[in-house]
Structures are given as structure tokens and as C-alpha cells.
Write a structure and sequence with these properties.
Layout (H helix, E strand, L loop, with lengths): L1 E7 L4 H15 L5 E2 L3 E3 L9 E8 L5 H14 L15 E7 L4 E2 L4 E2 L8 H10 L12 H7 L5 E3 L5
Antiparallel strand pairs: 1-4, 1-5, 2-4, 3-4, 3-8, 6-7
Length: 160
Amino acid sequence: MICIALGTSVGDKAENLKQALAFLTDLSDGAVKKSSIWETAPVGPSKNTFFNAVVFIESKLLPGKILQALKAYEEQAGRDLMAPRWSDRVIDLDIIAYNRMIYVDENLEIPHRSYKDRLFVLKPLQEISPNWIDPETGDHIDEIIRRAAPLSLSKSPVKW
């Protein structure tokens, strides 16, 4: 299973996530497992609240090819790929994990290098995989969440 985090903070956020889910469903070779939609306080220079979610897809594509597909989708959906880090965005898709693989190249690090610091990834991940174990450290999701920086977030009433 490939774990992908989704985030959006501009436009019709619910629709942005639904369209990204449709894209990920097409990309997946099997059923897609999805978290609830979570509403998160802005981080960094972002002015708007975010909608976040985590999904699991299945694919035979290698990590680099999946990254290319995600970045192409982000750009097609209207994301400015040159915008400052943490700025508001139409859609953000990050590969969090790829099976139990540890993978590093010049464009991609799996597990995602920052996911352990992001409650907006960790809480949705815990929701759909309550026994998640970090492939690098062997830490359980509950322990990772305990160590993460605080952040205001809650499940959104918005449904897929």
C-alpha cells in the first residue's frame, strides 16, 4: 500500500479533495482506502484553514513515477509549484510511505522526511491505520503522535 497525504486551502476545498481522490482512484490498481476529511489550522505563511486527508492506494509504479504523476496532477489542478513552502494551495499530494520501503533519491524521500512532525498527516493516518508502524524506526503511530508538535485540527463534517 502506498500512503498519500492530501491537502488544500483555496477554492472549493471539498471539491479539490474529491477531484484529487478521483485522480488517485484512477492511478490505483486496487481499492482506495481513505480517511475522513480533517480541518487544520494554517501553518507558516498560509492564511486559510486546510482540508487534509490520507489515502492508501495500490500501484506497481515505482516511487519516482508516482511522484511524477502526483506533481503533474498538482500542476494541472492549478497549483503553483514554485510558490513558497507552506503557502496556500489548490492541492498538495505527498507520498508518505510506499509499502515498507525506505527510498531516497535527489527528488524523493520515503518515508516522507517530515510526516512525523505533521499532525495533519498523522491523525488521518491513525484513523485508517491504527496500528501503523514507521518503516524506518519501528515506532507505533500513537508514539509518533505523542511526539509531534501541537496543532489545531478536527474531523470536518465535510464528506467525500
